[in-house]
Amino acid sequence: MDMRPIGVFDSGLGGLTAVRSLRQILPEENLIYFGDTARVPYGGRSRDTILKYARQDVRFLRSFDLKAIVIACGTISTTSLDALQAENDLPIIGVVEPTCRRAVLVTKAKKVGIIATLASIRSGAYEAAIRRLDPEVEVTGRPCPLFVPLVENGRIQRGDVVIETVAREYLEPLKATGIDTLILGCTHYPLLTEIIADIMGPEVTLVSAGEESAFELKRMLKTRDLRADESRQGTAEFYVSERTEDFERIASVFLQEDLHHAARRIDIDQYGI
Amino acid sequence: MDMRPIGVFDSGLGGLTAVRSLRQILPEENLIYFGDTARVPYGGRSRDTILKYARQDVRFLRSFDLKAIVIACGTISTTSLDALQAENDLPIIGVVEPTCRRAVLVTKAKKVGIIATLASIRSGAYEAAIRRLDPEVEVTGRPCPLFVPLVENGRIQRGDVVIETVAREYLEPLKATGIDTLILGCTHYPLLTEIIADIMGPEVTLVSAGEESAFELKRMLKTRDLRADESRQGTAEFYVSERTEDFERIASVFLQEDLHHAARRIDIDQYGI
Question: What are the residues of chain B with a beta carbon less than 8 Å away from any beta carbon of chain A?
Answer without folding.
Answer: 38-39, 44-46, 49, 145-146, 149-150, 153, 155, 161-162, 165-166, 242-243
